[in-house]
Amino acid sequence: MTPSTRAAHLAQFNVATLLHPLDDPRIAPFVELLDPVNASADAAPGFVWRLAEEGASDATGLRPAGENVIVTMSVWETREALWDFTYRSGHLEAMQRRREWFERHVQAHLVLWWVPAGHLPTVDEGLERLADLRAHGPSPRAFTFASPYTAAEASGHLQPVPATQPEAVN
């Protein structure tokens, strides 16, 4: 492993279009899963950070992609750590029930990309990487689980950590 790959973490950004407002009883089962799933992520091996609205325990109040679109974003030490959380934890139940709560996406809704360790991506970065994936398909700059790239392959696309970037918090 080269120094550049050791110093990289995997970021993920996901959008989901709600079928109903979050306070609608039809969405209640999803809302009830938020805290347990987020706690599971926070405690998962390889977890680094996840987006949460200031003063809230999650990011469901943020709507940068539209009023009925919620976003998630997190950073993980490795692709395997994110895969294990996504498909081998309580998160899987939420994914299996997503059609109850969210519209079916016709274009990419999840994007992965490598960031320098210690860098916390912004929502704008996530939106830009998702737009890149949608426009150009998977590349070392923006990819998916199905079409992954290693940190070494993406090393030319790692953004430098700004001097004022806050430390990642577990």
Rough outline: globular
Q: Unreliable segments (pLDDT under 50, ≥5 consecutive)?
A: 1-5, 161-170
Helix content: 25-40%
The total count of strands amounts to 4
Separation of the first and last Cα atoms: 24 Å
The helix/strand series, from N terminus to C terminus, equals: HEHEEHHHEH
Average pLDDT taken over every residue: 88
Biggest β-sheet: strands ordered side by side in the sheet: 2-3-1-4
**Assembly status:** single chain
Based on helices, strands and strand pairing, what is the structural class?
alpha+beta
> How can the largest sheet be summarized?
4 strands, antiparallel
Counting DSSP H or I runs of 4 or more residues, the number of helices is 6
Strand content: 15-25%
**Over the alpha carbons, how many angstroms does the gyration radius reach?**
16 Å
Structure, explained:
The protein has six helices and four strands. The longest helix has 16 residues. The two termini are 24 Å apart. 26% of the residues are buried.
Salient structural properties:
170 residues, alpha+beta, 4-stranded antiparallel β-sheet, 6 helices
What is the compact description of this entry?
The chain has 170 residues and is an alpha+beta fold. It is built from 6 helices and 4 strands.
